[in-house]
Amino acid sequence: MRDLRTKSKPLMIAFAVLLAALLAQRVVRGMFRTGHAHGAQGPHVVDGDTIVLASGQKIRYVGIDTPENGEPLFEEARAANDELLSAGKIHAKECEARPHDEHRRTLATVFAGGKDVSLELLRRGLGRVFEDGECLTGKTLDDYFDAAIGAYERRLGVWRGAPARPASPDEAARLAGQSAFVCGAVTSYYEGKFWSHMNFGADWRTDFTVSVPNASKDSLARAGFAFGPQSVGKKVLAFGHVFEHDGPKITARSPKQIRFVDSCEITL
Predict the structure, then answer these.
(1) What is the pTM of this model?
(2) Which residue, 74, 176, 255, 259, could crosslink 223 as a Cys pair with Cβ 3.0–4.6 Å?
(3) pLDDT tens for residues 121-139?
(4) Which CATH number does the domain 26-158 belong to among 2.40.50.90, 3.40.190.10, 1.10.3720.10, 3.40.47.10?
(5) Among 115, 122, 118, residue whose Cα is nearest residue 135
């Protein structure tokens, strides 16, 4: 008996580790397996990009920012989120690089009936792409921007009344905090260790800049955007969230966000 117990101990430890892992996974995903469609209690929909499980765990959708309470289209975004969640079995794919945000919400991509809920909301114009370089990458990033630009072109949701022409680099400062198209001629280029920058004015500390992580340059090149010193003098159309950092800036990680154009006198 002593030998048998000795030999079985590693197996018991392995089983305990496996059981603990499965139980930990249920904390994030177990409540999603039933979903609305099966008649069980579904998640509480807080707004367009946040839900709360029956366990009390909050899930913040990756890659989208929908209207806040009190803002236009808040109720529409929340109702659409609830509708999409009722489409079928629900599951969540947690962000491995950053599982939680500063509010201790779980960061995850949520699927219902096989469809990415955030992607569907973006297609309806009920949110803007939230540019998270850790959780939103690759084809998903491209798909999200493709959906947002498609909604912009159709003037859906948050894009109703959006400008038909891109802003100039000089106008970019007034767009801080918004997602917008900006078009202009590149005046200078600088490549750092992790980031490269195209500047659109005489002073990079105050003028409009498009910054690209060096890790994204290959994907941009494959899409036909030769990002480098050869960009100087060319006209560039960029789309993204405008923020202030040494002047107004857009960060471009996806080839869907940026392209060379012959003229900035274009209709969006």
Answers:
(1) 0.84
(2) 255
(3) 999 999 999 988 899 999 9
(4) 2.40.50.90
(5) 118
